[in-house]
């Protein structure tokens, strides 16, 4: 029998296992399913969850020994042991002194790790293995247990130890995690800097923590939910699985649906009686899959309808454009400065992929990549005052009729990034703008909550009051010293959007006050914000991640919000029964076209109420 080299290597290792020698049988999809028979393949896919759950053990085969993977597993075992200590890195780093003579100058503390660079490189190569991006691994891991063995060559680590190691790296991401990433990509920023919003930059995503050890951490959350006896799964548990699906590597696009039907978070929120059909068109499958969530009364699935961002002005070269010999921390910035000073600007392609599928606007496309926004996972229940959600089925013409409230009209929009090529943004309409929040202090309170979606990067809770620090004028004038933001810094946002009007005030007035020029002059004398606390760094990081590739908007009635980069002036803010956030809709063919989700301050927790006879029919094509 002909098998792939990867499978051959796995079989060679597995036959050394004592249990296999005792007579335990192996079930391997590539052998046990005729991959060339689409009918059999579809039939067997429905049994995958039962097969995994009935197995004595699920084995994760990460691949053969390569790129010092044995060194990586040794390091992961050490990290797992260290994670059980109260202070895992006590005495580990040799730290230099910090000299704070701001605003004149500042010498940042340096640290020296005793671990050789080849260990960090081995960890980078292990976490960036193609295996971790495969579609089917989501179901494999979900069906496993904490003691599930992870095999890599002839070395092994338990899934629990791998997760412990990943969590420890995440806790020390500014040092240990950064050293892992630095082994592959020399930074064009000084080595003492933090760097935030890396995962929002399309050119840098594959080198970010979210695409490496945090992938395993997300899979661990899915596994825990899979083993839960709770009869329902939350929205955040569902989106964790669906986000991995959207970014996974597949050889067959239909597996983005069929490969996760056995995931509890999906099954709990879905009505699905269809047999897997590998001959159905992808367009029809995407529509049926979205309709399955709607049939369960879960209108929040519409939040995942998302769009790409428009072109950016470019001409700015990045580290990826440099020859490897020039990618040195001390040389790279100088070379890039010269290149960018002599390069003419142009427009880059869109950020994300324009959808090429013939699907209604309410259908979630799982193939075409949206702009790389950070998910907003606050404890939202904007529809709480609209009554009980009911199942919805699409009409024969593929339209969707849902009860809801047309709440407001967008009449001002920020740019979605500093280099957006469309010069209309920031865009203020000529209509007068109300203010539902009160005086300037109330507007400022609404503003800082809006730019973080009133939540944290972990989600599930409201943003703490400490995040009000984000209103500090120096953040919007000079930024934070020692933090690189890939063009998404608050001071960079202010430079382009200072005239944006929100609730009757300009952005500049909201931050600097109505005597803005006096404030600006005072701030200009000083320097960037120095030495923020851990909570302040967390707030700053989350704000720029949440805002990246989204637009701040103001409304005609005087609300403000944060929404999809595809929003336009005169789009409507709509609440739908069964959807836990507002949506942005656009008039289309006598009905509506769905543009995307949004955070709208003041309506996220059931503040808007309406009786059944006060709801209107909203038809989405």
Automatic annotation (TrEMBL):
User: What InterPro entries does the record tag this protein with?
Assistant: HET, HetReg/Transcr_Mod
- Coiled-coil intervals, chain numbering: none
Q: Which residues cross the membrane?
A: none
Q: Which residues form the Heterokaryon incompatibility domain?
A: 2-140
The record's section on Pfam families has: HET, Het-6_barrel
Under what name is this protein listed? Answer: Heterokaryon incompatibility domain-containing protein
Organism, as annotated = Fusarium oxysporum f. sp. raphani 54005
């Amino acid at each position: 029998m002909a098998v792939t080299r990867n499978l051959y290597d796995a079989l060679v290792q597995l036959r050394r296992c004592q249990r296999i020698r005792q007579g335990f049988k192996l079930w391997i999809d590539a052998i046990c399913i005729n991959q060339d028979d689409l009918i059999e393949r579809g039939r067997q896919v429905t049994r995958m969850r039962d097969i995994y759950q009935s197995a004595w053990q699920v084995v994760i085969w990460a691949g053969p020994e390569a790129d010092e993977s044995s060194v990586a597993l040794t390091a992961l075992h050490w990290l797992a042991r260290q994670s059980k200590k109260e202070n895992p890195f006590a005495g580990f780093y040799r730290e230099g002194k910090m000299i704070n003579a701001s605003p004149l100058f500042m010498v940042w503390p340096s640290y020296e790790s005793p671990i050789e660079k080849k260990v960090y490189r081995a960890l980078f190569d292990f976490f960036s293995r193609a295996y971790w991006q495969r579609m089917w691994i989501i179901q494999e891991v979900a069906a496993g247990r904490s003691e599930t063995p992870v095999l890599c060559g002839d070395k092994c680590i338990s899934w629990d130890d791998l997760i412990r190691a990943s969590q420890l790296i995440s806790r020390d991401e500014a040092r240990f995690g950064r050293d892992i990433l630095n082994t592959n990509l020399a930074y064009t920023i000084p080595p003492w800097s933090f760097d935030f919003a890396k995962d929002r930059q399309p050119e840098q995503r594959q080198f970010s923590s979210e695409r490496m050890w945090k992938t395993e951490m997300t899979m661990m959350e899915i596994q825990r939910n899979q083993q839960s006896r709770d009869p329902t799964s939350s929205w955040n548990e569902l989106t964790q699985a669906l986000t991995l699906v959207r970014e996974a590597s597949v050889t067959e696009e239909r597996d983005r649906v069929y490969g996760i039907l056995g995931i509890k978070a999906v099954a709990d929120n879905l009505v699905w009686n269809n047999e897997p059909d590998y001959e159905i068109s992808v367009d029809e499958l995407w529509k049926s899959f979205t309709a399955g969530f709607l049939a369960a009364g879960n209108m929040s699935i519409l939040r995942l309808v998302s769009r790409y961002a428009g072109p950016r002005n470019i001409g700015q070269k990045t580290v990826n454009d440099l020859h490897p010999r020039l990618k040195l921390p001390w040389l790279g910035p100088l070379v890039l400065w010269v290149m960018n000073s002599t390069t003419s600007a142009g427009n880059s392609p869109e950020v994300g992929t324009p959808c090429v599928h013939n699907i209604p606007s309410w259908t979630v496309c799982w193939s075409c990549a949206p702009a790389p926004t950070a998910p907003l996972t606050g404890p939202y229940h904007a529809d709480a005052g609209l009554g009980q959600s009911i199942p919805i089925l699409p009409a024969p013409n593929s339209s969707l009729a849902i009860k809801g409230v047309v709440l407001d009209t967008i009449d001002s929009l920020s740019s979605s990034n500093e280099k957006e090529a469309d010069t209309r943004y920031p865009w203020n309409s000529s209509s007068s703008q109300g203010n539902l929040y009160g005086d300037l202090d109330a507007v400022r309170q609404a503003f800082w909550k809006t730019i973080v979606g009133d939540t944290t990067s972990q989600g599930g809770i409201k943003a703490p009051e400490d995040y009000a620090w984000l209103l500090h004028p120096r953040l919007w004038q000079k930024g934070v010293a020692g933090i690189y933001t890939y063009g998404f810094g608050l001071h960079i946002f202010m430079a382009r959007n200072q005239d944006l009007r929100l609730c009757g005030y300009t952005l500049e007035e909201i931050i600097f006050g109505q005597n803005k020029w006096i404030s600006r002059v005072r701030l200009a004398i000083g320097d960037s914000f120095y030495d923020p606390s851990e909570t302040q760094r967390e707030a700053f990081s989350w704000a720029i991640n949440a805002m990246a590739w989204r637009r701040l908007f103001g409304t005609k009635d005087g609300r403000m919000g944060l929404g999809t980069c595809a929003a336009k002036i005169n789009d409507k803010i709509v609440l739908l029964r069964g959807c836990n956030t507002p949506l942005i809709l656009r008039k289309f063919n006598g009905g509506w076209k769905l543009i995307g989700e949004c955070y709208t301050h003041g309506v996220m927790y059931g503040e808007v109420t309406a009786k059944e006879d006060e709801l209107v029919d909203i038809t989405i094509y």
